[in-house]
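pls design
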């Protein structure tokens, strides 16, 4: 039975299950013991009323037979029943009577249990003094029997009682003792941690802190009046720690200043210098929390610390110099940063501090990196890496490998970048630093998507395939073909990737390697999925799954199973997908496979979402969230919150969508998952569009940009720059829009990604159009169109032709406009996005009606109607067609 009290209190009430004690029965006891047995059987079936009746009947017979032992335990069980139903007065009566018998029998365990249960009753009744007395008596028994677990439990209960009495100091004392005994009893780590967290939470509670502050201030005042300087400093340091716990940084700073004054009065320069350094550290923390002006005060105090301490402590001096280097680095005063880092490095070298020297070179590398001196940065990072390896410092080695990977990526030496980032990833994974692993994997994915990298890899692999060794060694050839397939997939070259996958499959079928064959079939399924050939994808995924089941490859099965379900959903085979999910869910539940249950609950939620069964979709998503919350799996908790806000987005319940999107964002930021944080911010921006909260919309577009810049992925940064550009166009801030669009264009050009460059041309064309510069708009749209055609981006080309058509239409050049519109139509048909094509036809039809060009309007409407018929006349599309007819009638009448 669990109840919650206040904001900082969680209490687990005692529920003692009295065990049936078999004694040699005599005739007078038989009847009572039989009813007692029936009572236990009823309890096992959770039939509480029958249990109560049987125990009461047993009690009558036991009283007549003088069965004290039986009465003691039956009374205890009746107390439990009434306690669980919150009938505390009756529970108290039965527990008290049970205690009397236990004391008569001198049953120490029974006495302790009865006292504990009575304590719980008194606690819930609010009789805290009585509760404390009962728990103390029970604790005494546990101490006498040297029962560590029992002492832990009762100290916790006494802590809860003290907390309820607002005696926080006493509560902390009890919880600390409880934690110590739980450790001795080798209890669950989570329970031990929970007690520790509770203590830390209480130590930060305003009531506790206020009381301690008052006491410390009184002591400081008293010591000051009597001139006890050494004791004053000790109490000021206690006060400083208190304010730090309280997060009152201004008071921390003031207290340190008082300590410095006292130390200087005592001529203790070394200690004063240390305090100046501590004060500088506090100012830096305040700066990181938004008070940026405190950076200057930190700088002053670090310099003061160096001045006061002189050369008395070279090691501390080197740290202070390094801290000043950090300040100048953040201020972008790079020459000064280099100067102080170099001084710090020399001090470390004189001390023979290998780790300090390694960090010094890393700092110098950071300066060179910000100066975009890639060769210089590379040199410093290599020196740091060499020393980190010598010191066998895995975290430092991983960081320097990551830094070198970044530098080689900047230099477009992608093979080297890949090698160092892969090494960093392996090290982070070995250290179980999941956040760092994710960041490095993001960087690797960025490298793998670079056109230059992909071209280089294709060339390398093809050269290797042409060598005699590949023809002689079938395993080598298959490995190379597999690598080439991955590269082609990353390069979005689906046709060639498809042909290669088929060739690989044929070779695996010939060799009889079922594991490799299943992987190749899965790859082909993914290629067909990208080509929107859902039948082909389904067929290959199904074959791959069949093989993986035969091989009992559970990991591979789960990976491919999700893709298979997605294909079924995209192909409209919802019922088939649902049956598979429910079958798999039951199997996972039967085997208590938590990860599998979460996976299938999400899939079931996705199916229900497709069916617009909101209730069951939410139910499934919440079950997955509950499981991941219980295990503390933050990345998965964030995903569950995303599933839930997606549900509310579809329902257009913006308040609930906002609630869950904020939760997923908070988790993403907490675990430094910047990529998903970007996506969450964009979703929130869209939610605020619907809620008409424009200021928040802009805030989250900016926040998305901050996260994408922290992530360092130009493709993500480009997305956020475009969002801000479009937002500012809508507000009429065209200069700001232009600035964002041009920044996005510069990044896309740097990436040499033609699809992205074309998108930025479109945005710049729209900006020119809104500024009334038709010629510039047309030229820019044509540049976008040329790129889209070059890379066979039919969707993009369709957009460009639509924009050009709109431009000509506005200039009353209807024939040219219709030529563009017809070309756009052909492009959209290539994408097989029929709903979008209908929307395009209806938009053009509306434009034609606006200028009374009814025949062309009818032609476009007829095209839309034909596609709608092929799709089964979806209600939304039919409603849109009716709206067009009504609009035409309205214009006719005018």
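designed seq:
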């Amino acid at each position: 039975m669990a109840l919650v009290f206040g904001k900082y209190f969680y209490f687990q009430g005692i529920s003692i299950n009295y065990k049936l004690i078999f004694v040699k029965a005599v005739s007078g006891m038989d009847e009572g013991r039989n009813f007692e047995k029936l009572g236990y059987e009823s309890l096992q079936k959770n039939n509480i009323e029958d249990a109560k009746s049987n125990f009461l009947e047993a009690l009558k017979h036991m009283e007549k037979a003088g069965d004290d032992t039986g009465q003691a335990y039956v009374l205890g069980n009746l107390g439990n029943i009434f306690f669980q139903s919150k009938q505390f007065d009756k529970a108290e009566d039965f527990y008290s009577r049970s205690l009397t018998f236990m004391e008569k029998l001198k049953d120490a365990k029974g006495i302790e249990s009865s006292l504990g249960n009575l304590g719980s009753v008194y606690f819930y009744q609010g009789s805290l003094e009585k509760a404390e007395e009962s728990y103390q008596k029970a604790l005494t028994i546990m101490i006498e029997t040297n029962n560590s677990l029992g002492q832990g439990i009762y100290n916790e209960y006494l802590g809860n009682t003290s907390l309820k009495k607002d005696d926080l100091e006493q509560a902390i004392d009890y919880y600390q003792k409880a934690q110590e005994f739980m450790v001795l009893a080798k209890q669950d780590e989570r329970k031990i941690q929970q007690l520790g967290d509770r203590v830390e939470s209480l130590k930060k509670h305003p009531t506790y802190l206020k009381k301690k502050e008052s006491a410390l201030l009184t002591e400081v005042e008293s010591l000051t009046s009597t001139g006890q300087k050494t004791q004053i400093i000790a109490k000021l340091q206690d006060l400083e720690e208190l304010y730090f716990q309280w997060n009152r940084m201004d008071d921390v700073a003031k207290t340190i200043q008082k300590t410095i004054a006292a130390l200087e009065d005592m001529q203790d320069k070394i200690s004063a210098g240390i305090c100046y350094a501590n004060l500088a550290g506090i100012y830096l923390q305040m700066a990181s929390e938004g008070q940026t002006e405190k950076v200057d005060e930190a700088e002053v105090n670090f310099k003061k610390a160096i001045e006061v301490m002189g050369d008395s402590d070279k090691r501390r001096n080197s740290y202070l110099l390094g801290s000043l280097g950090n300040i100048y680095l953040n201020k972008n005063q790079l020459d000064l940063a280099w100067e102080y880092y170099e001084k710090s490095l020399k001090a470390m070298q004189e001390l023979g501090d290998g780790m300090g020297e390694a960090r010094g070179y890393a700092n110098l590398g950071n300066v060179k990196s910000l100066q975009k001196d890639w060769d210089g940065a590379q040199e410093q990072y290599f020196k740091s890496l060499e020393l980190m390896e010598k010191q066998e410092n895995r975290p430092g080695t991983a960081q320097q490998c990551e830094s070198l990977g970044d530098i080689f990526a900047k230099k477009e030496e992608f093979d080297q970048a890949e090698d160092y980032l892969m090494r960093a990833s392996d090290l982070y994974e070995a250290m179980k630093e999941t956040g760092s692993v994710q960041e490095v994997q993001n960087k690797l994915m960025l490298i793998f998507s670079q056109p230059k990298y992909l071209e280089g890899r294709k060339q390398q692999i093809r050269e290797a395939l042409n060598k005699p060794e590949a023809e002689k060694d079938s395993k080598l050839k298959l490995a190379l073909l597999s690598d080439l397939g991955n590269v082609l997939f990353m390069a979005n070259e689906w046709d060639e990737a498809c042909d290669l996958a088929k060739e690989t499959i044929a070779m695996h079928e010939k060799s009889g390697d079922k594991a490799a064959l299943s992987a190749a079939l899965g790859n082909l399924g993914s290629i067909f999925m990208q080509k929107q050939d859902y039948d082909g994808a389904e067929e290959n995924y199904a074959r791959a799954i069949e093989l993986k089941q035969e091989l009992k490859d559970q990991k591979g099965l789960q990976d491919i199973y999700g893709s298979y379900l997605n294909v079924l959903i995209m192909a409209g085979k919802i019922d088939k997908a649902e049956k598979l999910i429910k079958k798999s869910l039951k199997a996972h539940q039967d085997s208590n496979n938590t990860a599998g249950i979460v996976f299938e609950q999400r899939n079931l939620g996705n199916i229900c979402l497709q069916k617009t069964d909101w209730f069951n979709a939410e139910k499934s998503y919440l079950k997955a969230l509950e499981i991941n919350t219980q295990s503390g799996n933050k990345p998965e908790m964030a995903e569950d919150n995303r599933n839930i806000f997606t549900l509310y987005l579809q329902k257009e319940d913006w308040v609930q969508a906002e609630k869950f999107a904020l939760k997923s964002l908070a988790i993403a930021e907490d675990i430094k998952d910047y990529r998903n944080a970007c996506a969450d911010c964009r979703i929130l921006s869209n939610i605020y569009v619907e809620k008409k909260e424009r200021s928040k919309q802009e805030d989250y577009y900016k926040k998305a940009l901050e996260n994408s810049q922290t992530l360092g992925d130009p493709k993500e940064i480009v997305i956020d720059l475009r969002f801000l550009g479009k937002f500012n166009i809508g507000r009429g801030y065209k200069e700001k829009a232009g600035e964002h669009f041009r920044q996005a264009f510069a990044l896309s050009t740097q990436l040499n990604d033609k699809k992205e460059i074309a998108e930025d041309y479109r945005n710049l064309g729209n900006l020119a159009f809104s500024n009334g510069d038709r010629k510039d708009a047309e030229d820019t749209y044509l540049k976008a169109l040329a790129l889209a055609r070059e890379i066979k981006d039919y969707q993009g080309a369709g957009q460009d032709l639509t924009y050009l058509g709109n431009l000509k239409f506005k200039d009353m050049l209807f024939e040219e406009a219709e030529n563009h519109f017809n070309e756009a139509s052909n492009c959209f048909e290539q994408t097989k996005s029929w709903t979008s094509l209908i929307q395009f036809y209806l938009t053009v039809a509306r434009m034609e009606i606006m200028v009374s060009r009814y025949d062309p309007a009818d032609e476009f409407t007829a095209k839309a109607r034909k596609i709608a018929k092929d799709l089964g006349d979806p209600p939304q599309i039919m409603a849109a067609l009716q709206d067009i007819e009504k609009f035409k009638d309205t214009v006719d009448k005018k």
